[in-house]
Here is the input.
Amino acid sequence: MVDVNVKNGNKANPVPVQEQRKAASIPSALPVLPVRNMVLFPYAVTSIVVGQPRSLRLLEQAVDDDCLVAIVAYRDPKVQEPQPEHLYETGCVAQVLRVVNQGRDRMEVLLQGLEKFRVLEWLGDKDYLSARIEVLGDIEPEKGDVEAEAVRHSLVQEFSRLVTTLSYLPDELLHSVAQTEDYRQLTYLISSSMRMDVQEAQDLLEQEDVVAKMLKLIDMIHHEIEVMELGKKIQDETRGAMEKAQREYVLRQQLKAIRKELGEEEGSQVKVEEYREKIEASGMTEEAREQANRELARLERLPEASSEYGVILTYLDWLTTLPWSTVTTDILDINQARAILDEDHYGLDKIKERIVEFLAVRQLRQQRAGESADTGGNHLLRREREGAILCFVGPPGIGKTSLGHSIARALGRKLHRISLGGIRDEAEIRGHRRTYVGAMPGRFIKALRDVGSRNAVLLLDEVDKLGADWRGDPASALLEVLDPEQNRDFRDHYLEVAFDLSQLMFIATANVLDSIPGPLRDRLEVISLPGYTDEEKLNIAQRYLVPRQRRENALRPEELSISDGAMLKLIREYTREAGVRSLDRRIGAICRKAVGRIAEQGAKSLAVDETVLVELLGKPMFFYDLAARVELPGVATGLAVTAVGGDILFVEASAMPGKKGLTITGQLGDVMRESAQAALSYVRSQAESLGIDPQFYEQTDIHIHIPAGAIPKDGPSAGVTLVTALVSLLTQRPVRHDVGMTGEVTLRGLVLPVGGIKDKVLAAHRAGLKTVILPKRNEKDLDDLPQSVRDSLSFILAEHVDTVLKAALE
Here is the structure.
């Protein structure tokens, strides 16, 4: 044997005499016993089971010799036959105290740690591993070191807390720790008592400074205590939850027994459990969940015969069937959306462009949100307004409702139509309170349940026909529904909980804007849909209406054809409308007559030209007698906008003996009556320059009449027409029959701009007029007209009424 020196630092105290004897008696070369998943510390006594053949041969040799072995830990416990590179270089010399043969090539070995060492050299290949070693000491604090004593005291206190917390540590160990005064022995005693992984234990063994070892142990004890306390807290909470669940189960069983004794059916409890599952699976908000659970608790206490029982069941049905978290995925393919819109509707480029813009914004927002998430940003991830509120305004039959269906199809969303025409009860929007018998939610909550998606398209039809009476104002109730800043927390009176409507897309339709209240109109993005031109009607009829009517009347495409000439005659002489609804009905009548001829006369097909059209539908119903109507002086052709689109109107003026009388007829509103008085005042003030006797009004009565007296008329846009009719009457100069006009006139003769230019010009085009006189400031509105209309009409832009008279009078 070769004596080795104990390695000490500068601050190390001399190794105790008994330890010097230990170190002196340890050979410089020892057999190495690798151990898995543990690190042996000096002073520690432990038992291990050995099963490796090489380790068994080592133990047999060690028992035969001096019973000292070098214990080192595996770096990787998965290695089966460890080589030197698989083992740590620092370990602990151990004395074999006892070896018990357990049979089947297994031995139980009792070891006591003596000193830590470092491997200097791995020796040659034998039946087992061996190495030349160097015994290591630890750097202990000097005697009287106050800081070290404080650390020692803190370590003992923390270890005492750990012993009281952990049940597997005996109280005798705490007594031994308290009686140990040697810093090094205390450190290894506590280290060997604690549970730690191999790497932590190895780091602690290799640490040379005893004070650093103690500080590290204090940190480990802190962590262990925190973990144990947290685990105990979790166990307590789990135990409390289990006890609560068990208590509820016992109470429910008792309640079940009581109901059974009372003769009540068990179906009530089954329903309660069903609704409890529905509430959990519905994805509703926390507020709605609490409300549903409160109502469910009430339901559980009520007998089925109670009148309140059915009311609560209905309420829970509504809560659990609403789409709280159900959404559909938008189709963000712009080309596909444009193709769908073009497939369903001809023209309407402005509407289609708006839908494409909406899709483009959605697509870009989704892309930017993904980029922001990838880069860790959040400025694009905050919640934005997703809904859009479009309002299509135009005459009937122009395709406003069908356009809503196409938009929903292009977006890939579900659609629900809500008809608002004639609604006078505010509860139709907000719902009835549950205090009323037969209370129900409003139409919007009903629509959401029916459509089953919280991002659907809601089509609000006829929004301009809402009424108001003593039951409330539905238009005012719509303000909250359509306001993107308010509808995130829409509260239906029946539900009494907030529901988010911000992801809905609202599309409203109206014939006129005037009857929509201002605050409601302010929330709408208004898009005007004027009437169609004859060319557009021809394309719509041949592309959409004729094929549809053929399908509805069981006709094959080759069995019926309508020529373009016949279709234009049908448009101009059998219908008079801005849309195509009457045209659709006329085409349907042609199809039915074609079916009759095929069934009765055995015809194989029917080709409809202008002659056949008259045979099928009879003589034309409409024609424009412009030349006959304005051949006499005093009649002028004006342009107007009605609820069914643009139209022409005739203003007739007549003079008769009298004394300064003015009669105005034709069911006119106050504004138009005032326009007539202003027109007469202007003519009287400019009589001499207009070539009229200045005293004409002294012995004359004037009668102004606008035919179609059954139709109400109002507005200032007939001002220039009234002046032209009066000047034509008083100068006996007829008005040109191919000229139509519109514009408001002042007492100084200025022509002011008016609205509805596109509808009025389209009406002039349908009527066959060649020249249209418009206010100069309405020139910008000509850009909205189809190119074919602009090419076929001549426009005169007037700033003063003199320009109007010069262009209109013969």
